[in-house]
Amino acid sequence: VISRLGRVDIPLPGGCRIGERPFDLHEWAFRELGASISSSEDGITAQFSEAFDHSSEYTLKLPFPSRGVTINLIIFAASIRSSLFVIENANMSPETLSVLSLYRNLGFRTCIDMPNSSIKIYGFEGDVQKCSKFKVPVDKIEAATLISAGIVTKGRVFVENQPKEELVAFYSAL
Description:
Blueprint: H1 2-5, E1 7-10, H2 24-32, E2 35-40, E3 43-48, E4 57-61, H3 67-80, E5 84-88, H4 94-105, E6 110-113, E7 118-122, H5 140-153, H6 168-173
Parallel strand pairs: 4-5
Antiparallel strand pairs: 1-3, 2-3, 5-7, 6-7
């Protein structure tokens, strides 16, 4: 919304049953891109004083590889259609890579540098007129939680459609 309108007013995010879900990195990222951000008890306002120069290149190095911020920036980068948008120290989770896959299917050029944890999104000429199917990835945290519940209760749990390779770290910790 902010990439299209230059300003957005959103309510404060709700709580999370598993703990704090800070949004300070989201604010930091948009400030780094030139937005002014203010908070009140009603919500958050973010605004850009100038329109984005689509011929410019943008590079943002995240202080922490946040999945939410990385995906937010991918969507933002695709919306502003700059000549090049680079996210360094990006999150490389399956969820993030699935969003990049969607944008590639829509015609965007992207480059993933796994060893350096960087993502490049190149400018897009014309209008996005393609349609693409997008399958929301299975939540590996939810799957690991259900499996753990089965282990603790000595019950039987069946988790469908969860790729085993996404739970290697979880299985290794058992």
